[in-house]
Specification:
CATH class of the largest domain: Alpha Beta
Number of strands: 18
Order of helices and strands: EEEHEEHEHEHHEEEHEHEHEHEEEEEH
Helix content: 10-25%
Radius of gyration: 21 Å
Number of domains: 2
Distance between the termini: 59 Å
Largest sheet: 11 strands, mixed
CATH architecture of the largest domain: 3-Layer(aba) Sandwich
CATH topology of the largest domain: Rossmann fold
CATH superfamily of the largest domain: Class I glutamine amidotransferase (GATase) domain
Number of helices: 10
Strand content: 25-35%
Bound molecules: glutamine
Strand order of the largest sheet: 9-8-11-10-12-13-18-17-16-14-15
Structural class: alpha/beta
């Protein structure tokens, strides 16, 4: 193999250059990639066959180590266009990555860097040569657990250091990880690309909608870039506010609608400050749409609760049934917590259900113009079946 071949770099091929240690004591050896050092996080597996760059840059993954079940990761390199963090220079907070096959030299006209260099630059510690099928079966059977990866090119990996890093990692439950990845200042997204304060970020992805756009305030809990593109393409002019924005600050912008973004960590912890804002917005009957963490925030705001799932949903082929139309959509998923449907109040009706495990995937309020979904209609990566939800939001604002 080229690129990450140990011998070509003068390393001792007989020694593992990376180790993955799980909280249950499972120790897996492999070849190191990306950043050197030790990093702990909650381990999950993602079953998508494409879109590794979007996955690794999705801020909802902050605090996690991602096992890719698709064996060939890195073959098409990385580029600036497929980044999902809004600020392409920012970190998504992903702690580590686990791959099966060696990463080859990139072979794609869009590639500007190879995955190894990029992981190094992002500070993501990774391991290859892992039996990801066995690891996935373990996580699926025993549930999500904490893990740690150590990477040292000379093979000197101190297992005591791995254990101590693992012991210090608090896990995801009870953790508000939104401040790690969310915007700290208001910014606008429009035709020229980004108005990120103090940063000249290239890339004119946004397009100013034709006619008179709907004015949307998007609350950034760890917003994905493609959500902004989808809102804009559906006819919205988007202003992004930090996660701690109050209802007064949101309403002062007199928005046609409020969007609640995806994001990392335990929704209950973020709900502490997000819920009062959302309740203030709902009180004024401003149309509201939430995705993933935003769905969980809307549920919490109407009095429902969320719970940690066994191993979560992370992939690009999850069937979800729309309970209103009876249609099935194939969706992109990335969540480790779920809304407990038994706790939904009378004014919240369940609109979507996972056909993998029956968990709640959507709700709408019967007395307010508000709805949300657990899956990712913006995809990136994944199927586009659920794009209609962006248009539903625009229609809801139009009907106001
Ligand atoms: N993609 C997301 O918004 C994830 C939401 C939440 N952090 C969860 O794991 O359930």
């Amino acid at each position: 193999m080229t690129g990450q071949d140990a011998a070509s770099r003068g390393w001792d091929e007989t020694r593992p250059t990376a180790k993955l240690l799980l909280a249950d004591g499972t120790l897996i050896e492999g070849e190191g990639l990306g950043a050197e050092g030790v990093a702990a996080g909650e381990i999950c597996f993602n079953t998508a066959m494409t879109g590794y760059e979007e996955i690794l840059t999705d801020p909802s993954y902050a605090g996690q180590i991602i096992t890719f079940t698709f064996p060939h990761i890195g073959n098409v390199g990385v580029n600036d266009d497929d980044v999902e963090t809004v600020n392409i220079a920012a970190s998504s907070g992903v702690r580590g990555a686990v791959f099966a096959a060696d990463v080859t030299e990139p072979s794609n006209w869009r590639a500007t860097r190879d995955l190894d260099q990029w992981l190094k630059a992002k500070g993501i510690v990774a391991i290859t040569g892992v039996d990801t099928r066995a690891l996935t079966a373990l996580v699926r059977e025993n549930g999500a657990q904490n893990a740690v990866i150590g990477h040292a090119p000379d093979g000197e990996i101190d297992e005591a250091a791995l254990k101590s890093e693992l012991a210090q990692f608090a896990g995801l439950e009870g953790q508000d990880l939104v401040p790690l990845v969310a915007a700290t200042q208001r910014y606008g997204w429009d035709e020229g690309g980004w108005a990120w304060p103090g940063l000249d970020v290239p890339g004119a992805y946004g397009r100013r909608p034709e006619g008179s756009p709907k004015r949307v305030v998007a609350i950034d809990y760890g917003l994905k870039r493609n959500i902004l593109r989808m809102l804009t393409e559906a006819g919205c002019e988007v202003t992004v506010l930090p996660p701690t924005a109050t209802a007064e600050e949101v309403l002062a912008l007199d928005p046609d609608g409020v969007f609640l973004s995806n994001g990392p960590g335990d929704p209950a912890a973020t709900g502490v400050y997000a819920v009062p804002m959302i309740q203030g917005v709902l009180e004024k009957k401003v149309p509201t749409f939430g995705i993933c963490l935003g769905h969980q925030m809307l549920a919490l705001a109407v009095g429902a609760t969320t719970a940690k799932m066994h191993q979560g949903h992370h992939g690009a082929n999850h069937p979800v049934k729309d309970m209103i139309t009876g249609k099935v959509e194939i969706t992109s998923m990335n969540h480790g917590f779920a809304v407990d449907r038994a706790t939904l109040p009378d004014n919240a009706r369940e609109t979507h259900v996972s056909l993998f495990d029956g968990s709640n995937c959507g709700l709408e309020l019967t007395d307010r113009p508000a709805f949300s979904v657990q899956h990712h209609p913006e995809a990136s990566p994944g199927p586009q079946d659920s794009h209609y939800l962006f248009h539903r939001f625009v229609e809801m604002m139009g009907a106001r």
